[in-house]
Design a protein that fits this description.
Length: 186
């Protein structure tokens, strides 16, 4: 083989190398899974049913610096006994400017979200979800709350993110947020 032939083969090999390596770059990285919502603030507004003399009640949980920073600020939910309320949850992401109303994003993805309401003691409040998704499964941004006798306890609200797996139960998906409010019924 002559020097000219060797150099020709080397040049051909060098020209082909970018084609070999560029074919690896043509493959796209897989798209990330549907991310959980960023939530820094949860506000629960309870409006008494028509004809009730009870005042409107609002409670807020706020943790604008996220997990591991400063402790969240948590209000107390003060309700009247033997009263029915209409509840509305508002969730915000205050790390963004302008603030993102995460509950609006959840409304666009009702089929992927489900709220759970757990009271301790269980007899303190009766909570029913009143909104539904396209599959007729409950969501929980809107609720009906009924108090019984006076008492104190806690209300834990958990938002489950269940893209493609929502079936009305807690099991599938991940928790977007879980907050606990002290409750006083008096």
């Amino acid at each position: 083989m002559t020097i000219f032939q060797s150099r020709f083969r080397l040049a051909a090999l060098l020209l082909a190398t970018p084609l070999i390596f560029s074919s690896c770059k043509d493959k796209k990285d897989p798209e990330p899974a549907d991310d959980n919502e960023q939530i820094t603030t949860v506000t629960y507004l309870l409006t008494p049913a028509a004809g009730s003399t009870a005042p409107t009640a609002t409670v807020t949980w706020r943790d604008t610096d996220g997990t591991g920073g400063n402790a969240p600020t948590i209000g107390t939910l003060n309700l009247k006994p033997n009263t029915t309320y209409t509840g509305a949850l508002t969730l915000l992401d205050e790390t963004k400017n302008p603030v993102v109303v995460t509950s609006d994003e959840i409304r666009k993805e009702l089929d992927d979200h489900l709220f759970f309401f757990d009271t301790t003691p269980a007899s303190l409040l009766g909570i029913t979800r009143t909104d539904k998704d396209s599959k007729n499964l409950e969501v929980g941004l809107a609720t009906r709350v009924v108090t019984t006798a006076a008492g104190t306890g806690n209300l834990k609200i958990t938002l489950r993110h269940q893209p493609g797996t929502k079936n009305g139960t807690f099991a599938p998906g991940d928790t977007d947020i879980e907050v606990t409010f002290p409750v006083t019924v008096q």
